[in-house]
Amino acid sequence: MKKIGLTGGIGAGKSVVARIILAMGYPVYFSDERAKELTSQHPDIRRELTNLLGKEIYRDGKLDRGKMAALIFEDDTIREGVNKIIHPVVRKDFSDWAVKQGSDLVFNEAAILFETGAYKRFNANVLVTAPMELRLQRVMNRDNVTREEVLRRIDKQWHDDLKRPLADHVILNDERTPLIVQVEQMLEQLK
């Protein structure tokens, strides 16, 4: 079984590509979605996040995601601390999940594979890219946030120029170049 990392900057469309891969019959582990579940359910994560961020980070037993996001985007030390708490649990969860899939290729969709060094754990990595203006518009529309807020988030991630040399495959999601053809070509090369 080959484990494939799938990533892209905010608004690039990695989730769209992940859903295409899933529709083509390949299992996809959605790291960000699973991490959200684990931050609410996993006792070690809950305990350590409370120790790092204070008891008020959980309200009525649920993680205050807005508060945590604000803290993460404002303070690099807090972001690194949160990542050190959550990422090892998510990595183990992915490994346990992958073994059960019974597929030659399994994909792990995650936002910051390169930034965390997690890309080294995969047999290959796929980077989804899109023009900056399109990314900004997508996130502004999706999250109902300002251009400045999106730019602040983008600045917390590596730029595509740093990611491209580390990627084995690059998919352009510019709403002009056919995505399905690119995904099919990538899958053929990975087999």
Structure commentary:
- The structure is a single chain.
- With 191 residues, this protein is an alpha/beta fold.
- It folds into two domains: 1-27 and 106-191, 3-Layer(aba) Sandwich (Rossmann fold); 35-100, 3-Layer(aba) Sandwich (Rossmann fold).
- It is 56% helix and 15% strand.
- The chain has ten helices and seven strands.
- The chain has helices at residues 14-23, 31-41, 43-53, 65-74, 76-99, 113-116, 132-143, 147-155, 160-163, 179-190; strands at 2-8, 28-30, 58-59, 62-63, 105-109, 124-129, 169-172.
- The strands form two sheets. Strands 2-5-1-6-7 form a five-stranded parallel sheet, with helices on both faces.
- A hairpin with a 2-residue loop joins strand 3 and strand 4 (62-63).
- Helix 2 packs across helix 3 and helix 4 (65-74) packs across helix 5 (76-99).
- The protein is globular.
- The termini are close together.
Q: Can you tell me the number of structural domains?
A: 2
Order of strands across the biggest sheet?
A: 2-5-1-6-7
Major β-sheet, in short? 5 strands, parallel
CATH superfamily of the largest domain: P-loop containing nucleotide triphosphate hydrolases
Question: Which labels suit this protein?
Answer:
globular; 10 helices; about 190 residues; Rossmann fold; five-stranded parallel β-sheet; 2 domains
Please summarize what this structure is.
With 191 residues, the protein is α/β, with parallel strands linked by helices.
